[in-house]
Amino acid sequence: MFFRLINQLISPSAFWLIHSSSMLLLFVFCAHPSRSAIVDTTTFAGTVPFTCSLINGDQSVDMGYAPLGIFKPGFALLSGTSSVITASANGFARVSVQLDNVASASPDTMQMLVRAPQMRNQVVANPSESNNHTDTLDLEAPLQLKLELQATVVDQPDEYEIEATITCFQ
Q1: Terminus of the chain with fewer CB atoms < 10 Å: N or C?
Q2: How many CA atoms within 13 Å lie on the side-chain side of 164?
Q3: H or E element that contains 168
Q4: Strands 109-116 and 122-125
């Protein structure tokens, strides 16, 4: 009865405007989520781990022998060069090279030059007596390394074995 009375008193376009507005308000109030709704959130998380690789790192190098003669009487030089070792990581890394004498006979002195063939054989690390036979270099991109060892030893028959340990870390 009320809508008939209003329909007779106002124009049809105004009636539809009022009717549509009422329907819209009803929709807005009904569409609002109720306080008893359950909401779940699933979170996905992941971590990219640090990885570093040393390709061709396990080698056995035969050292050459040369007596030092008048330069250092009674001593000889044992020297050897490794094949290329490629170090790479998926981010900024540090590579350390440490020398250790593992035989009973100890060299008088030992020094290693770590060279980068792709950088015109530039020396990038130098583990020697002055740094406790350990040196570290930064690795920002894959790098080829060659290890050159020189050990001054007593010029008498004996067995020498020196290990170079390469460690990659963050």
Answers
A1: N
A2: 31
A3: strand 162-169
A4: antiparallel
The two three-digit tokens of residue 9, written as one number: 């008193």
132/124 Cα distance (integer angstroms): 17
Summarised one tens digit per residue, pLDDT across range 135-161 is 999 999 999 999 999 999 999 999 999
Nearest 10 degrees: CA dihedral of 89, 93, 99, 102?
-60
- Are the CB atoms for 72 and 151 separated by under 8 Å? no
- Domains and their CATH numbers in the chain: 52-169 (2.60.40)
Whether this prediction's pTM lies above 0.85 is answered by: no
CA distance 20 to 93: 67
Give the separation between CA 77 and CA 75, rounded to whole angstroms.
Answer: 7
CA distances from 151 to 67, 84, 114, 116, 133 (A): 12, 20, 15, 21, 12
Please say whether the beta carbons of 146 and 85 come within 8 A: yes
